[in-house]
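If you are new to this repository, start here. Below is one unmodified record pulled from the training split, so you can see the exact layout before writing a loader.
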Amino acid sequence: MNFKVNPIFENSTESILKTIKMFNVKGELFGNGDRNKIKLFDLNGKAINIKSFKVPNLINKVAYRYFRKSKAMRSFEYATILLQKGIGTPEPIAFLENFSILGLKDSYYVSEHLNVDLTYRELVEIPDFPDRENILRQFTKFSFDLHEKGIEFLDHSPGNTLIKKNASGNYDFFLVDLNRMEFHNSMSFEMRMKNLCRLTPLEEMVATMSNEYAKYYNEPEEKIFVTLWKYTSDFQENFYRKKRLKKKLKFWKK
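And here is the target side for that same chain:
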């Protein structure tokens, strides 16, 4: 077993480990749990969530044991880095890896549970969401700040940014699902645009984001829009092509 706790929570080490070990029999299920399962728990009066990652296949069992960091470890480490860089994410609490002779058996990531107002997804799915354009523009500035700090969030998709209105009436943003991330000294224009292409299929949202991004970046708004819309369109086309292919494969399996 490999178990690490955030120094802030060292006094709760035993309670955290005990809670993880009760994952399969206690806790409130959060979300659909299609791939990875998340459950909510109480830790000394603090709401936390524990993410149990899908059991890896045989090749990955070995890889995560000897060659690569597990998703749980990466989530914990990346959350720590994000907070150090001033980027919002739920407070990392701990991670645990269990090993067998074959390699990694199961793994868990423990973090603070945040009650938020929405995710980016609501901005896509609800055109008349209250204060929608303002939220979208503040989100774009948040994404620009990520890029300026060299943070390439590879799962920068609609459900992975939590959004909460703060006391001043502005919005705070928190990244989740952190196990795929890269850090750079700087990010090129192409990298920045590709990083934003998975967020929305709506041209009007891309136009608003391009307009806002251009306020902070030294490229014309038109170039930003044309480039971002091209990458967005390419991503959407590939996404639905794969979806159609999976549907056909499932048909033949039947």
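Two things worth knowing about this chain: The mean pLDDT is 92. The first strand starts at residue 2 and ends at 5.
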